[in-house]
Amino acid sequence: MTSHDTAILRANETFYRAFSTGDYATMARLWAEQAPVTCLHPGLPALIGRETVMQSWRQILTQSTQLTMRCDHAHVQLFGESAVVTCYEANGDEPAHLAATNVFVREGDQWRMVHHHAGPLARAISRPPPRAGLN
Amino acid sequence: MTSHDTAILRANETFYRAFSTGDYATMARLWAEQAPVTCLHPGLPALIGRETVMQSWRQILTQSTQLTMRCDHAHVQLFGESAVVTCYEANGDEPAHLAATNVFVREGDQWRMVHHHAGPLARAISRPPPRAGLN
Questions:
Q1: How far apart are CA B43 and CA B81, in angstroms?
Q2: Residue A76: burial class (beta carbons within 10 Å; 0-12, 13-18, 19+)
Q3: Mutate which of A71, A78, A79, A97 to disrupt the B interface (most B C-beta within 10 Å)?
Q4: Which residues of A1-20 are buried (b: 16+ CB within 10 A; e: fewer)?
Q5: Residue B40 DSSP label
Q6: Does ipTM top 0.85?
Q7: Is A125 within 8 Å of A46 (Cβ atoms)?
Q8: What does the alpha-carbon distance between residue B13 and residue A104 come to, in Å, rounded to a whole number?
């Protein structure tokens, strides 16, 4: 794993932590400012442009029912200055019920999100066992 | 629209044409050879690596029930040597029932696919009206 992979996985974790804690400020900093952004929330039409995408996150993160989002089996594809992360999303300790594509690009020294797409899994995927030495 | 956008949209159309005509050879040429590839078919776990991804396409493209896949509202995000296309997928003349993320990278002078993710839309999206002068 390269240092870029590590930084991209950290950005991906930042996304799910901001999602789980309702932290709009962190979510807004994570999404790219210069590169174009889009978002496909589960089942919904595409959101295009930073203002539209961030408005959706403001609504999601301030709703009364807070979700604790977990990301399992994150896998990085690195393409120079951009990267795709695929992973499974779960609520709390439940099996994962969504598959996600998260795309990041480098802006300055930061990996920032430019696209998120989450869609349902036909069969939920169990949480992977904790890896020895990481707990 | 830049010449890159046009070439990326053409690669995206190649994907749906190969899908619709069961053209495995074209599909195999479209997917990247050097860059890492992944695929999230609707509802299914992630496929990682060219051999696994292409095996899935061989199965899909040789099945007896041929699908005629249409791609509506394709939208390009260009990030230098990579690009994300979002669009809606439909069968034949039906309203679109899937949202898709297609990621491409440049290999030599070709835009080649490195990731495909399709997931269901909660509400089908009607086919856009034909644009004047294009028919």
A1: 29
A2: buried
A3: A79
A4: eeebbebbbebbebbbebbb
A5: E
A6: yes
A7: no
A8: 24
Q: Please indicate whether, in this complex, the C-beta atoms of B75 and A35 are within 8 angstroms of each other.
A: no
Joined tokens for residue A3: 């240092």
Residue A118 main-chain phi, psi, to 5 deg: -125, 135
Q: Per-residue confidence of chain B (135 residues) as pLDDT tens digits?
A: 789 999 999 999 999 999 999 999 999 999 999 999 999 999 999 999 999 999 999 999 998 677 899 999 999 999 999 999 999 999 999 999 999 999 999 999 999 999 999 999 999 999 998 776 554
pTM score, whole prediction:
0.95
Q: In what order do the strands lie in the sheet with B82-91?
A: B47-48, B38-40, B110-125, B96-107, B82-91, B69-79
**A82–B79 C-beta distance less than 8 A:** yes
Mutate which: A101, A104, A115, vs B, most B CBs within 10 A: A101
